[in-house]
Automatic annotation (TrEMBL):
A Pfam family assignment: Rubrerythrin
Protein name, UniProt field: Ferritin family protein
InterPro entries given in the database record: Ferritin-like, Ferritin-like_SF, Rr_diiron-bd_dom
Organism for this UniProt entry: Virgibacillus sediminis
Domain Rubrerythrin diiron-binding: start-end pairs: 29-148
Amino acid sequence: MYYYMHPAYYHGGYEAYMRTNGQQTELLEALIKAMEGESETIDFYERLRKISPTKTSRETVEHVLEDERLHLEMVVDLYRTLAGKSPKYRRRKKQIAGFREGVRQAFDDEIETYKFYRDSYLLTQDTAIRDVFFHAMTDEMEHATRFGFLYRDL
């Protein structure tokens, strides 16, 4: 499990730190959006994996799925640290029209998620918070690359 505790948490609490920096609401909203997106993506990739036609395609989806689970864990842990409570977020579900179309959709979604994490990264100067967004952002670009190659080979 990924646990992040910023040094400010030990000196007066994170809520006071974030209020003085005026970032709490915007960051927490970004984290909720990230949790919703990651949970939707996990569900989608679990179903995409089940309809993968080859061992290679299944392994590609499994690799990305593992990263997405880690992203969800990281943003949930960061939310708990910043907000001092467990998050509440919607778990949505999107349709799959078949494996090939699912891979194309995954590619597009990974590019959009990369942009979201890039923008979230810019919300703060706190390097520890930025590290969470940066980690997810770079993974999303890697995932888009993997899905792009997979789509090309289908």
